[in-house]
Amino acid sequence: MKTLPKERRYETLSYLPPLTDAQIEKQISYILKMGYIPAVEFNETSDPEVYYWTMWKLPLFKANSTREVLDEVQACRSEYPNCFVRVVGFDNVKQCQILSFIVHKPGGSSYRY
Fold first, then answer.
1. What total of structural domains would you count in the chain?
2. Which residue range is the domain that position 77 belongs to?
3. Would you say residue 61 lies in a domain?
4. CATH number assigned to the domain comprising residue 99
5. For 16-38, what is each residue's pLDDT tens digit?
6. What is the first-listed, main subcellular location in coarse terms (predicted)?
């Protein structure tokens, strides 16, 4: 077993190697399967002290496929290439965010979709 290199860790799944396109699709599929509402958010920094990210458009209330969510992620990345981009899943019954994970780091991982 090898120790990971020392680097800044972000959120859920950040201790794993960068997610592949297929893994991102599976995470988004899980969000949709559980009935959570996906949304895309972005921010210039991912400091732990920053609690509020800017939402890209509105939550994707009517999203039925991973492709719809991935298209919005790609649009956000294109518009704000120097920002962190994450996908979040909201539970409309509990009225809270259930999960989030970063899908784009500026100058870092580049996902293709």
1. 1
2. 21-104
3. yes
4. 3.30.190.10
5. 777 788 999 999 999 999 999 99
6. other
